[in-house]
Amino acid sequence: MTLLSKYRGEEQLNVDIMLTLTALMVRAEFCKKVYDAGGIDLIKNVMETFANSDKIIRQGFKLIKSLAGDDECKEHLIVKGYTEVLRDSILANMESAGTVTAGLAAIAAMTLRSPQNSKALFDAGIPEVIVAAMKHHSEQKAVQKAGSWAIRNMVSRSQYQCAKFIDLGAEEVLHQNLEKFKDTQYDVKAALRDLGCNLVFKEEWTGKGGALTTGKIRE
Fold first, then answer.
1. CB–CB of 63/18 below 8 Å?
2. Could you read off the pLDDT of 71-84 as tens digits, one per residue?
3. Which residues contact 114 (CB under 8 A, 6 or more apart)?
4. 3-state secondary structure of 214
5. 8 Å CB contact between 45 and 39
6. Are the C-beta atoms of 30 and 24 separated by less than 8 Å?
7. Global model pTM greater than 0.85
8. Per residue in 43-94, pLDDT tens?
9. Quick one: CA dihedral 64, 66, 71, 76, positive or negative?
10. What is the C-alpha separation between 114 and 124, in angstroms, rounded?
11. How far apart are CA 215 and CA 87, in angstroms?
12. For the chain, which domains are there?
C-alpha cells in the first residue's frame, strides 16, 4: 500500500502493484489487511486518476473482484463509493471488451448474495450499464457470460429489479445468446430464470423404449 501511495502517478508501476495485490487476494485475512492499510481508498484514487487507462481500469476491476470475495470488504467497497467507480469506469472504457468483461465480473462479485450492494448499484444506474455493455459487445462471448452473472446476482435477492432489466432489453439479449453461444447456456439460463422469464429446455432422454427422443419441457 505504501508503494501505491508513493507512486500513484506512475501508470505502469500502479498496474504492476495492483496485479501483485490481486494475486495475493486468496484469503479473507489478506483482503482485510488491504482494507486496514487504507488500500480501498488508494485503489479508488488510482482508478479515478487514470480513468481512461485501459490497463489501470482492467486491473482495478480484477482487484475489486478479488476484494469482494470477502463479505466485509464487499460492504466497504460500497461505502467507499465504488458504485460510481464501477459505473463511470465501464462507460469510459466501453470500447475495450476485456475491460468491460472485468467490470461486469466485478459487479457480479460485489452483488453475490448481497442485496444491500445490489440496491446501491441499482440506484447508481448499473442496470443500464450492464445491458448497454452487453448490447455493445453482442458478439463477445466473455462479455455476455460476465453480463449474465452480473444480472443474475443483481436480481436474485432483489426481485423488484427484474422489471427494470426487462424494460432495458435484457431478456431479448439473453435469449439471443442462447442461440449464439451454446457453451454459455447455463450462465444465460441462470440469469433468465432469476429474471422470471420463460425458458424452454430440450429433453433428450425420456426413458421410453430405450430410444432417444426429443421433447420439450418448460421451467
1. yes
2. 999 999 999 999 99
3. 71, 74, 75, 157
4. coil
5. no
6. yes
7. yes
8. 999 999 999 999 999 999 999 999 999 999 999 999 999 999 999 999 999 9
9. negative
10. 16
11. 43
12. 1-195 (1.25.10.10)
